[in-house]
Amino acid sequence: MAQHKKYSLTEAHKAQLKPWAEKWIRNAIDTRAMTEEDRSICVGAVKRLYRAANLEPPLDRHIIFVPSPFVVRFASGFAAWILYERKNKKGAATYDATYDATYAATDDATDDATDDATRAATYAATRAANWYSLSGDMVQCAIDLGVGLAGLLCAQKSYNFWQGGNQWSAWDSFLSFFRHVAKLDLNYTAWEAWETLSLHSGPRAVHKDFCIISNRPEVLLVDEQNRPHCATGPFCRWRDGSSLYSFHGIRVPSWVIEHPEKMTAKCILAEENAEIRRVMVERMGMERFLGEAGAKRIHQHAMGELFSIDLPNDPEQVLRAVRVKDPSTEGIYFLRVPPGINRADDAVAWTFGFDLAKEYRPVKET
After folding, report:
1. CA–CA distance, 135 with 292 (Å, rounded to integer)
2. Do 166 and 286 sit in the same domain of this protein?
3. Residue 278 sits in which domain range?
4. 23, 78, 125, 236: which sits with the fewest CB atoms below 10 Å from its CB?
């Protein structure tokens, strides 16, 4: 059995860990639009990637650049289905309907099935990108594009040939560190193309007959802990208008951020995802939510009032919040506390980090 030498980081290598991580963090959050040079580099890298996998690379015209991962997801799935239909000579009528529905008739026809199908699906998905988000209703999109159930299923399964590009920079930073900094005695030839694509483009779909590559986003925002976040709009938006929404790292539907005025206690209580429900309560405001939801006051104390409401879909089963008054500003605040707290004074003590009333002994102001 071959013996492998164990590697240990040298002090010089350790000194490069932080700057190397920062380099790849910048790559992960890069919002520069791809240039013609980027695209040219990616075409060459795609061909090397296929050859490294012992596959015949797609033709240049089958390496397609699109504005967003949304387009990659839909276009690759639909194109794979159209190619399957055409190659197996199945569902000619269905294919013809799809062909028309995806506006393929507006493009110059070619004799190449791969090019034709891929361009058709890409064009359709690009047209649809302003109407749907990645978290949107794929069924409705399939209906509007006329691709039917089979095309929808292919779009849903397109993650099977998904590669993350610069969005997978965390793993790439690890591998590239040992290639470029530690310089391990390994053959990185097969991985070089993957690294190049990560440095020059966004996510991609790698199919036997085509490769569809996304541009980088034009907006990418995070909070102070580097979690995806924006309280006024999408935290991530691509140049075709497709967007993603997140509140301190919790992915939410667009309307939760864009239209908090539409929030109701009823829709919050119906939300099955506990994390999204917490964001919705914060966006609506605890006071308004407790009032609309009919919360009960279960304890009153000079220090505040404790309210409770059942949450059947929540792991904690109940939401409890204490109402307090800031004596210096006269402002009223509602603070969420653990569900096991049953007294208002214990709730206030908890908000100060004490072990409930066992440690908290308030002193009356004079």
Report:
1. 28
2. no
3. 265-359
4. 23
Last-in-domain residue among 258, 282, 316: 258
| Dihedral pair phi/psi, residue 4, rounded to 5° | -110, 130
> Which pLDDT tens digit goes with each residue over 310-345?
887 777 788 899 999 888 888 888 888 988 899 998
How, if at all, do strands 236-237 and 243-244 pair?
antiparallel
Question: pLDDT digit string (tens) for 136-176?
Answer: 444 455 545 555 555 566 666 777 889 999 999 999 999 99
Residues 6+ apart with CB under 8 A from 262: 255
- Give dist(CA 297, CA 307) in Å, integer: 4
For the ranges 47-51, 78-82, 192-196, the lowest mean pLDDT is seen at: 78-82
Using CA atoms, how far residue 352 sits from 193, 293, 328, 330, in Å, is: 53, 27, 17, 19
Provide the pairing of β-strand 162-163 with 204-206: antiparallel
User: How many domains in the chain?
Assistant: 3
Residue 35, pLDDT above cutoff 90? yes
Residue 210's contacts (CB-CB under 8 Å, 6 or more residues apart) are 58, 62, 63, 64, 76, 79, 114, 118
Judge whether residue 46 has pLDDT over 90: yes
Q: Among 227, 258, 289, where does a domain finish?
A: 258
Q: Are residues 30 and 124 in the same domain?
A: yes
pLDDT digits (tens, 9 = 90+) for 58-109: 999 899 999 999 888 878 887 787 777 777 765 444 444 444 443 333 233 3
Question: Is residue 289 domain-resident?
Answer: yes
On whether both 252 and 192 belong to a single domain, the answer is no
Give the predicted TM-score (pTM) of the model.
0.73
The Cα-based distances of 131 to 70, 243, 260, 295 in angstroms read: 11, 10, 20, 38
What is the residue type of 131? Answer: W
Amino acid (one-letter) located at 160: N
pLDDT at 250 > cutoff 80: yes
Residue 291 φ then ψ, to 5°: -65, -50
Coil, helix or strand for 275?
helix
Let me know: does 67 contact 97? Beta carbons within 8 Å: no
